[in-house]
């Protein structure tokens, strides 16, 4: 598993190790179509109204899927939100992993160069998927989501420490990686408010420069 990214595979696991209820086994073409329609509608409503004020009736109406099917596939509003989060995480993981693999295949083995390349890929993904990124940056999610996100944050820091070859037993090293990871996360949130792609690219370039300077050991 690459660094830079937060853990993607745990999105169906809730705090305490419980699985997300309501997601059926099996994945027929019809089920995929129904789930896509529900997730697209949920993203629209969550973005417009926030998680707390979003209504399942409105989500079902916009998707054209009965409320009963919504519960069958996702178990309710919380399941929809977590599924959107998982989708965002998985796409970011795919993007950063592909970037790191390509860099290594070119012979790049410098830890800082790899870290910054992965960070750029992550930030590019945050811009491309800014509607989802902006949704998860809000302090308005389902119960238990903050604890789950903190768990992912800790895993993200650990992966970045391995990528940067930092000794996690040393407090100074842990703090440095935590700061670098926080810089990436903060920049990703800023990208959600960018007016256009030119501004977004300027931010990504600036942040990557900051990461290089902060990563170099004095």
Structural class, by secondary structure, is mainly alpha
**What percent of residues are in strands?**
under 5%
Q: pLDDT under 50 segments (min length 5)?
A: 5-25
- DSSP helix fraction: over 70%
Task: Name the CATH superfamily assignment of the domain at 90-218.
Answer: Tetracycline Repressor, domain 2
**What's the level 1 CATH class of the domain at 90-218?**
Mainly Alpha
Mean pLDDT: 86
Distance between the termini: 28 Å
CATH topology of the domain at 90-218: Tetracycline Repressor, domain 2
Provide the gyration radius in Å: 19 Å
The topology string of helices and strands comes to: HHHHHHHHH
Strand runs, count: 0
Morphology: elongated
List the total number of helices: 9
Largest sheet report? none
CATH-level-2 architecture of the domain at 90-218? Orthogonal Bundle
Protein name: HTH tetR-type domain-containing protein
DNA-binding region: 55-74
Region (Disordered): 1-30
Domain HTH tetR-type: 32-92
Brief summary:
This protein has helices spanning 29-53, 56-63, 67-74, 77-105, 111-128, 130-137, 145-163, 171-191, 197-215.
Overview of this protein structure:
By secondary structure, the protein is mainly α. It has a domain at 90-218: Orthogonal Bundle (Tetracycline Repressor, domain 2), CATH 1.10.357. Helices cover 71% and strands 0% of the residues. Helix 5 (111-128) packs across helix 6 and helix 5 (111-128) runs antiparallel to helix 9 (197-215). The longest helix is centred in the middle third of the chain and has 29 residues, at 77-105. The protein starts with 28 loop residues before the first helix and ends with a helix.
């Amino acid at each position: 598993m690459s660094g830079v990214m937060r853990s993607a595979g745990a999105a169906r696991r809730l705090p305490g190790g419980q699985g997300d209820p309501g997601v059926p086994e099996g994945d027929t073409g019809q089920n995929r179509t129904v789930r896509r329609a529900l997730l697209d509608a949920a993203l629209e409503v969550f973005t417009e109204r926030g998680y707390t004020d979003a209504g399942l009736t409105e989500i079902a109406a916009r998707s054209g899927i009965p409320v009963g099917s919504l519960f069958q596939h996702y178990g309710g509003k919380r399941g929809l939100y977590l599924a959107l989060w998982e989708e965002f995480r998985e796409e970011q993981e795919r993007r950063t992993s592909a970037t790191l693999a390509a860099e290594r295949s070119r012979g790049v083995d410098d830890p800082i160069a790899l870290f910054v390349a992965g960070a750029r890929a992550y930030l590019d993904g945050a811009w491309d998927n800014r509607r989802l990124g902006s949704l998860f940056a809000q302090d308005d999610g389902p119960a238990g989501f903050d604890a789950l996100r903190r768990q992912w944050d800790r895993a993200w820091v650990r992966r970045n420490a391995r990528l940067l070859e930092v000794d996690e037993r040393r407090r100074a090293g842990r703090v440095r990686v935590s700061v670098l990871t926080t810089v990436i996360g903060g920049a990703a949130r800023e990208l959600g408010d960018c007016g256009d792609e030119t501004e977004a690219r300027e931010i990504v370039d600036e942040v990557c420069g900051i990461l290089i300077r902060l990563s170099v050991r004095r």
